[in-house]
Amino acid sequence: MELIRYFRLYAKERFGTRVQKIPVALPFTCPNIDGSKGRGGCIYCYKGSRPAHLEPWIPLKKQIEEGIQRARERYGKKTRFFVYYQSYTNTYGNIEFLKNIYDVALEFDEVVGIDVGTRPDCAPDEVLELLSSYKEMGLEVWIEFGLQSANFETLKRINRQHGVSDLVDAVLRAKKYDLLVCVHTIVGLPGEGKEDFMETAKLIASLPVDGVKIHPIYVMKNTGLAKLYLSGEFNTLSLEEYASFAADMLEIIPENVIVHRLTAEAEKDKLLSPDYCVYGRKLEVIGAIEEELRKRGTKQGTKNPFSVSLSQVKGAIRNFVKVV
Ligand code: SF4
């Protein structure tokens, strides 16, 4: 068993070749921006987490074609792809619109899956059912729910406009549709300390979650968080602090949970802090976390406090059904 169950290792085993995610940007908005849940968005939100090189007015098919071409030049012709619906809330729209945009992934033989990022309060059953239908068409389907923290006070402080219970509900319903579920967390949010990060990791460990994203909080210019940072009311974590907290969380997260991300990257001229979140330093951050685990002699899942795995639960349910 490796130190960390990275997505790239999982995908290589699953598909027999390198798999790259192609992020795409679409003309979505978010219920926390358009007023249906809140206005102004989460205090750290910068263009709905859209990658710098993407624009939603570029046709989706062209974004995917260009993403495939770029990745193939770098990683070779055998590379396969996930279309990653990343920015804003990619399940927030009427069902026909959503179907049209997910359907584009089916036009590419090289695409083996889709990965849809959203909020836990924005995943009605009809959308989960639609996503599940792509499995029957041969795609692997991941849904990513942004939780960020298991502390409701933090969620209020950062203006998430959803609760922890929304995440539990969304995960359990997504599993009813047999979707692969990834939960997104942030380390170092305002007002949080180690016990909050540990609680977030424990919540993930207690749920039937297949994947996790962990990244440090970073401050983009012209956001609510930037005001707190510039006024001195809030500071980001040093790389050493982040590596230590991320290692703490990984020790709790079960060893079979797939780690999709361990850091965040932003453009230098738009980023206020921390400097290790600038594009190009990703491997340094990941290296620091791995080094921390090696130093401790631990790895992902070493301190998972919950011993009942999802497969054991499924087995128990199957036995129960047989008896009844
Ligand atoms: S949920 Fe995402 S897109 Fe919506 S405001 Fe928060 S960070 Fe921005």
Total beta-strand segments: 9
**Fourth-tier CATH superfamily name:** Aldolase class I
CATH class: Alpha Beta
What percentage of residues falls in helices of 4 or more residues?
25-40%
Number of domains: 1
Instruction: Give the SSE string.
Output: HEHEHEHEHHEHEEHHEEHH
> In CATH terms, what is the fold-level topology?
TIM Barrel
Task: Please report which band the strand proportion falls in: under 5%, 5-15%, 15-25%, 25-35%, 35-45% or over 45%.
Answer: 15-25%
Radius of gyration: 19 Å
Residue stretches low in confidence (pLDDT < 50, at least 5 long) are: none
Which structural class fits the helix and strand makeup?
Answer: alpha/beta
What are its keywords?
324 residues; alpha/beta; TIM Barrel; seven-stranded parallel beta sheet; two-stranded antiparallel ribbon; 11 helices; binds iron/sulfur cluster
How would you sum up this structure, described in words?
By secondary structure, the chain is α/β, with parallel strands linked by helices. It has one domain: Alpha-Beta Barrel (TIM Barrel). The protein is 40% helix and 16% strand. It contains eleven helices and nine strands. The protein has helices at residues 7-15, 60-75, 95-103, 125-136, 152-157, 164-176, 194-206, 224-230, 239-252, 282-296, 310-323, and strands at residues 19-24, 80-85, 111-118, 140-148, 180-187, 211-216, 219-220, 258-261, 271-273. Strands 1-2-3-4-5-6-8 form a seven-stranded parallel sheet, sandwiched between helices. Helix 3 packs parallel to helix 4 (125-136) and helix 9 crosses helix 10. The model has no long low-confidence stretch (mean pLDDT 94). Iron/sulfur cluster binds at residues 30, 32-33, 41-42, 45, 48-49, 88-89, 119, 146.
